[in-house]
């Protein structure tokens, strides 16, 4: 998640982003998240894609119980928190400036007996990937992480590194611009990709992707 502070916006649709907290009910738990738009920008507010992703997790679009998962560009940590509450062991990642904020949200929302099911860690896409086991995750989660074109190549590199042939990538995103569609086309060159859910009211698409088998030259 890019760390881009934004100027206060008076549009009613964005007013919820400027609130200091956001509250949800997922996995039979009340989740209370701090938000900090003015300091950390888009990385520190809950976007609709994260909410829809959590809805998909609750609906069982992917198996979570006992799975090893990683969330990319976690922002407030909502998706990773819900994945942990639903039984996954989750590494919740973002860039270094957001980690203290992210860690506080994770600690505040996981019961004491679930604290070990989630760890917060720094990850800048495409950099120092050796810190994470190649193909070491059953599930890779990303909510509204496809919007900056400069990040597309390192994001794909990161997905390829984290995924084995049996890993599942779940991406929730709003298709705002042509470049977003371009990323999906890039993804389809390396991953078998299908849309598994569409939330019309919020205009959020959820895509499931698995690595394509290596091509064998004849």
What does this structure look like?
The chain has 218 residues and is α/β, with parallel strands linked by helices. Helix content is 26%, strand content 29%. It is built from six helices and nine strands. It has helices at residues 37-40, 48-59, 78-85, 99-109, 152-162, 178-188, and strands at 21-26, 29-34, 68-72, 89-94, 118-122, 137-143, 163-173, 191-199, 204-211. The chain has a seven-stranded mixed beta sheet with strand order 5-4-3-6-7-9-8, sandwiched between helices. The chain has a two-stranded antiparallel sheet with strand order 1-2. Helix 2 packs parallel to helix 3 (78-85). It is globular and about 50 Å long. Residues 1-13 have low confidence and may be disordered.
List keywords for this structure.
alpha/beta, single chain, 218 residues, disordered N terminus, globular, 9 strands, seven-stranded mixed sheet, two-stranded antiparallel sheet
Concise summary:
This protein has helices at 37-40, 48-59, 78-85, 99-109, 152-162, 178-188, and strands at residues 21-26, 29-34, 68-72, 89-94, 118-122, 137-143, 163-173, 191-199, 204-211. With 218 residues, the chain is an alpha/beta fold.
């Amino acid at each position: 998640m890019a760390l881009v502070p934004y100027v206060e916006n008076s549009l009613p649709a964005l007013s919820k982003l400027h609130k200091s907290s956001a509250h949800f009910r997922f996995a039979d738990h009340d989740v209370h998240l701090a938000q900090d738009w003015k300091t950390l920008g888009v990385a520190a507010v809950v976007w609709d894609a994260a909410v829809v992703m959590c809805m998909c997790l609750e609906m069982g679009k992917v198996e979570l119980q006992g799975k090893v998962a990683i969330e990319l560009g976690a922002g407030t940590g909502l998706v990773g928190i819900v994945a942990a509450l639903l039984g996954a062991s989750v590494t919740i990642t973002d860039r270094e400036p957001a980690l203290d904020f992210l860690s506080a949200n994770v600690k505040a929302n996981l019961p004491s007996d679930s604290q070990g099911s989630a760890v917060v860690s720094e990850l800048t896409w495409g950099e120092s990937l050796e810190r994470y086991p190649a193909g070491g995750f059953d599930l890779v989660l990303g909510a509204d992480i496809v919007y900056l074109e400069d990040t597309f190549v390192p994001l794909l590199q990161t997905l390829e590194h984290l995924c084995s042939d049996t890993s599942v990538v779940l991406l929730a995103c709003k298709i705002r611009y042509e470049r977003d569609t371009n990323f999906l086309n890039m993804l389809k060159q390396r991953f078998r990709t299908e849309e598994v859910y569409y939330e019309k009211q919020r205009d959020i698409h959820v895509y499931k992707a698995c690595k394509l088998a290596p091509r064998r030259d004849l």
